[in-house]
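Tutorial handout. Part one gives the primary structure; part two gives the three-dimensional structure as tokens.
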Amino acid sequence: MSAPASTAASGPVPSPAPAGPARQIAFPPLTGSQRVWGTVALSLATFMNVLDTSIANVSIPAIAGDLGVSPSQGTWVITSFAVANAISVPLTGWLTQRFGQVRLFTASVLLFVIASWLCGLAPNIESLIAFRVLQGLVAGPMIPLSQTLLLASYPAAKAGTAMAMWAVTVLVAPVAGPLLGGWITDNISWPWIFYINVPVGLFAAALTWSIYRQRDPGPRRVPLDRVGLMLLVLFVGAMQICIDKGKELGWFESGEIQILALVAVLSFLFFLAWELTEKHPIVDLRLFAQRNFLVGTVSLSVAYGLFFGNVVLLPLWLQQYMGYTATWAGLATAPVGVLAILLSPWVGKNVGRFDPRKLASVAFIGFALVLWMRSRFSAQADFATILLPTVLQGAAMAFFFIPLQAIVFSGLTPDKMPSAAGLSNFVRITAGAIGTSLFTTLWEDRAVLHHAQFAETVNRGNSAVTQTLAQLAAGGLSPDQALATVNRTLDQQAYTMAATDLFYASSGLFLLLLLLLWFARPRPPQGRAAAEAGGAH
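Part two.
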């Protein structure tokens, strides 16, 4: 998946923390070993969080097989986390003010540890999804608060250095996720992809509390938009369940899907009406009146949905139809972060000097090229052929997040930054979850179509088929076994062609997004600082 985790390659997108009001209370920067250990604690918590958006990607076939469900149902393990995480992100600002940033961060890490432990213990897919929802909900405040606390730990002159270290942590985790997840799945068992969070999280929480507990501005009472929150949960939850279960239940032939769709549409309309009139909205939808925020958020979110859908699809195809183990699927997908790590510092440093629309265009063209290369894959593709686009994708990633965020935040006043960060991240994470569901559904649909087309020509009246069956029979296979072998070959070809169809379509959509991107206004002079702030983060 996407970010991969979400962002993952799907890891979370660096952004100004939605915990703005708490940040107004000034504490002196940390010094010496305290600053070093504080950075370690915050980085470990961030690493653990981002790792969990990508570590499950290569383990889905193993999880699905162990729990007795299809791989497409197994992807709910990814989408449930992403949806819950998206819902909790807009709440971070209110929670920070209500409980205090250090208390909230430490509690989030500890609850994340408990949720991870429960995920490993899950006896069936239903309980695993429930625990992943819990994990996503408590994970929401961790990323923005880690940024807030880290920035407060360093002098203003070293803020760029602090955020560069934070960004490297975010980019290393998606590289490690598939590798670590694949190795654990093949050599131990999939529950350990969750259990490894326990010691890391406990250490990070203890270290954070020991260093930062005296630097908490403390709680204060602030109003909560309960109606808006309820409508948000209702429409996002109903929409995601509708997309996840649509194919399984026959889409709109199912009464359940019809009800879910109706609930999603009505709750969304009520949500829009309520948030636009509420004095303290859970998300400030009026931000979409700003052209750059609208264009930047839509471009970022649609692109992220395409990106994350492809990130989830690739290891599924490799493991189910190319014979890759989880470890080798991890090796084929992990190098995506290498060029991203090398190039991101340069992009972050120079986003204030160049038009961010040009930098983001490099990303979209890069993604289009990478996905076009993947659209040329065949069932005979070797490891090097599969690896090359993955490595190149890292360069596109480096030009993706930072310039698009510079567009999102350009022209906004400082008091709007926290709300803008919360809203843009909510839309992006939700798009990633939707992209995962749509890609797995479309993959299966296209494969069924290709298989049916193959079956029309591959029959006993075909001389090549007759010869193949005769050779298999000569090799000692029974007629049923020979037919099953031919059918498996057809499946491999059908699912490979279905995957390349989606890669090709995604390539074209990235090129179309280029047109949308240039509807953004050039950065105004007064927006330069805001854009650079977005880039530094």
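Part three, for discussion. Confidence is low (pLDDT under 50) at residues 1-24, 525-537. The radius of gyration is 24 Å.
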